[in-house]
Amino acid sequence: MDVREYITAGKERFFADLKEWLAIPSISADPARHPDVRRSAEWLASHLRETGFPTVEVWETAGLPSVFAEWPAADPDAPAVLVYGHHDVQPVEPLDEWETDPFTPLEKGDRLIGRGASDDKGQVLFHTLGIRAGLTASGATAPPVTIKLLVEGEEESGSVHFPELLRAQRKRLACDAIVISDTTMWSEDVPSMCTGMRGLSEVEVALYGPDTDLHSGSFGGAVPNPLHAMATLLAALHDADGRVTLPGFYDDVVPLTDEERELFARLPFDEAQWLRTAGNSRVAYGEKGFTTLERIWARPTAEINGMWGGHTGPGHKTIVPREAHAKLSFRLVAGQDPVKVQESFRTWVERHTPPGIRAEVTTLAGNVRPCFSPIDSAGVRAAKRAMERAFGKEVLFTREGGSGPEADLADILEAPLVFVAVGLNSDRIHAPNEKVEMPLLLKGAEVSAYLWDEMATALRPE
Question: Residue 294 — very low, low, confident or very high, per pLDDT cuts 50/70/90?
Answer without folding.
Answer: very high
